[in-house]
Amino acid sequence: MHEFFSQQRVLIIRFTGYILIPAVFLGSLAAAGWKDFNLTGLLQIREYSFLSHAVCMLIYLWMLFLILRISPGTDRRLLRLLHITAAASVFLPWSQQEQIISNLHIIAAYAAFILLNLITVPLIMRNHTCMRICIMTMLFCLLHCMTYSSVTGLAEAAYACMLSGVLTYLSTK
Fold it and tell me: What would the DSSP string read from start to end of 31-71?
């Protein structure tokens, strides 16, 4: 069995990065309605809470696996800060009644987003095709979020699927 996985490693990574991760992410958002919720909103709904936490953890572990596969020398301090801010953004609830905790959630989520980009942008900038895809996707996400005046599920889905695809491509080329 180990021999099979070692022989098919690239195929397994491509299947997971190109198909499985985007399907899980898009499926969870589509089940709840991505016009109404983003992933953080799903974390607060009792029916979707476990699924949302599992999807967050799966995507986060997949991104870490790919980052460490592409660049094993990634700064460990940045990775530790990313761990802390990502965990804080997932486990601190956002609600309209608790403003302090909601603000901490937003600060942690933006910090995790910035740290993730600080880690991945240098990896992506090495490849011109990936760079163009990332810039176009980020521009779409930015304009979409500005239009709705909030972070939407569609913007999160586009960004997560793009990042999964680009990091998968870079890790298997």
Answer: HH-TTT--HHHHHHSTTTHHHHHHHHHHHHHHHHHHHHHH-
pTM above 0.70, yes or no: yes
Pick the closest to residue 166 from 24, 55, 21 (CA basis). Answer: 21
Per-residue model confidence (pLDDT) at position 24: 86
CA–CA distance, 120 with 164 (Å, rounded to integer): 11
Say if residues 120 and 67 touch (Cβ distance below 8 Å): yes
Q: 67-76 burial by CB neighbour count: b if 16+ within 10 A, else e? A: beebbeebee
Query: Which two structure tokens, joined as six digits, stand for 158?
Result: 């586009």
What is the structure's pLDDT at 34? 64
Angle at 29 between CA 11 and CA 165, to 5 degrees: 30
At 169, which amino acid appears?
Y
- Alpha-carbon span 147 to 35, nearest angstrom: 13
Angle (deg, nearest 10), helices 49-70 and 153-172: 30
